[in-house]
Amino acid sequence: MKSLLKTGVAAVAIFAANVAQADEEANLVINEEIEITVRTDAPAHAENLSTIYSGWVFRSDETQSLQMDDFENPGMIFVDDAIDTWNTVEGSEGNSCASCHGEPESMAGVRAVYPKWNDAAEEVRTIAMQVNDCRTEQMGAEEWKYDGGDMLNMEALLASFSRGLPVNVAIDGPVEAMWELGRDIYYTRYGQLDLSCANCHEDNYGNNIRADHLSQGQINGFPTYRLKNAKLNGVQSRFRGCVRDTRAETFSVGSEEFIALELYVASRGNGLSVEGPSVRN
Amino acid sequence: MAENVKPRVRVPRDATAGEAIVIKTLISHTMESGQRKDGDGNTIPRSIINRFTCEFNGELVIDVTLEPAISTNPYFEFQATVPETGTFDFTWYDDDGDVYTDSKDITVG
Amino acid sequence: MKLTRRHTLMMAFGSVVATMLPMRAFAALDDEVAAFTGGAEMGSEGITLIAPEIAENGNTVPIEVSAPGAEAIIVFAAGNPTPAVATFNFGPLAAAQSAATRIRLAGTQDVVAIARMPDGSFVEARQEVKVTIGGCGG
């Protein structure tokens, strides 16, 4: 299936086989109700993968179970927080999110298709960019910090109302150039370790790096509540952490490069369910 | 008070008399242990929830003493007996003197 | 819960940081245990402690304790600088003398649970939890 020797000599030394993979067979149903697709056929444009897997599959039994019930998933506290924010009037126009969008349930399905093209602005928008556009243009309110607490709470809310729906990000038409930029970045080797995203997440998923069980680096579960820092984590902050681990200079959160990479990585997960807020290590 | 402290509690809506039910509680709190240092090397003062209680119609179910080794956003799961229709009261006590509460009604049919 | 997976983790390069904390931690533990038990002898029957054999992250380790009939259960992390973790006191409406929570472990160490029974006796359960250091994401 995967070859340890695909990557360079330096890289090989840091990967080890994870022999016990029983947990990779597990299925995820949230609240005994929402069925999550955690493995499915890879979309044609993820040409080096045959099956795509949610990061949930690679976590320990204990971590997996934290996501199976919304009263055990600490990420859901922040969805509650965001529901309050959703209904709070802010900014010069006297609007709350609810003024225009009604109940947050109206957002069902939205998370699944982001990042997506915005015709009026002629740009690829992540969901965070769209929320900030509503804040500044529709509410006359301050922008939220990209991957800051308020934004991640709202992203968790938006994701939670799309849980179980298949990720379905468009890759052609006006987004094509950005998608290709994202793909180039994904396969570029960075840093002293000379590793690309693909070296870890495509060539070595299922193996261990140090003590960590490598996933495919999918983003269907974002924002993720990480046990490590006990808070919600944004997609691009996670990218930054991964690039930094190769001892490379990284792109900044909100940059053109990371928007392109987010679009590309999201599209590699087309077919997996939206899962956020998920729980990871 | 500590910012944005939010409880999240699950109690079933109904039960039969004497039934044992499972209760799950989460609350958002940093649980600053008092052992971490800030960027300047100064110890960040301890600030935790130090006690959690659950009562049903005024009678005790569980009374927990928390130390700084309890994780951020404390979680508790435990079981309660429901003798009659009534109300569960949940109380979290913060080091800084604040008290956070939540309550849930349950109907015995 | 299956607890025996991931022995294989240990094979990974530069793998697991299985350091024990300094011995002084154990002296602190002895004092705290004595404060709870008054130095009484301890049995090992009638108390269960469920903890992962290997925790993916020491910041959030799920544990569960149960001691049917107990008045109180105290939990220690033997290798933490301050070993005390939590004390569960059960009231008349506790349907079971059991509870689950999530704890912080500063490295690989034993988690210890001690229950005080209504007859004044004490029982203890203990389990080692290996704490791993993840590879990615800062």
Distance between the termini of chain C: 29 Å
Rg of chain C, alpha carbons: 16 Å
Order of helices and strands of chain A: HEEEEEHHHEEHHHHEEEEHHE
State the total count of DSSP E strands of chain C.
Answer: 9
Structural class of chain C: mainly beta
What structural class do helix, strand and pairing data of chain A support?
Answer: alpha+beta
Number of helices of chain A: 10
Which percent bin holds the helix content of chain C? 10-25%
Q: What is the helix content of chain A?
A: 25-40%
Rg over alpha carbons of chain A: 19 Å
- Percent of sequence in beta strands of chain C: 35-45%
Query: What best-fitting shape of chain A do the alpha-carbon axes yield?
Result: globular
Instruction: Work out the oligomeric state of the chains in this entry.
Output: heterotrimer
Q: Please provide the count of β strands of chain A.
A: 12
From the structure above, extract its key features.
heterotrimer, A: 281 residues, alpha+beta, 3-stranded antiparallel sheet, 3-stranded mixed sheet, 10 helices, globular, disordered N terminus, B: 109 residues, mainly beta, 5-stranded mixed sheet, 8 strands, 0% helix, elongated
Structural account:
The complex is a heterotrimer of chains A (281), B (109) and C (138). With 281 residues, chain A is of the alpha+beta class. Chain A has helices at residues 9-12, 61-66, 75-86, 97-101, 127-139, 149-160, 176-187, 197-201, 235-245, 256-268, and strands spanning 15-16, 28-30, 34-36, 39-41, 51-53, 116-118, 123-125, 208-209, 212-213, 224-226, 231-233, 278-280. Chain A has a 3-stranded antiparallel β-sheet, with no helix packed on it. Chain A has a 3-stranded mixed β-sheet with strand order 11-10-12. Chain A starts with 8 loop residues before the first helix and ends with a strand. The model of chain A is unreliable at 1-12 (pLDDT under 50). In chain B, 0% of the residues lie in helices and 53% in strands. Chain B is an all-beta fold. Chain B is elongated and about 60 Å long. Chain B has strands at residues 7-10, 14-15, 19-27, 49-56, 59-66, 75-82, 86-94, 99-108. The two termini of chain C are 29 Å apart. With 138 residues, chain C is mainly beta. The longest helix of chain C is centred in the first third of the chain and has 14 residues, at 24-37. In chain C, the strands form 2 sheets. In chain C, strands 1, 3, 5, 6, 8 and 9 form a 6-stranded mixed β-sheet that branches. A 3-stranded antiparallel β-sheet of chain C has the order 2-4-7, with no helix packed on it. The interface between B and C is medium-sized, with 29 and 29 residues.
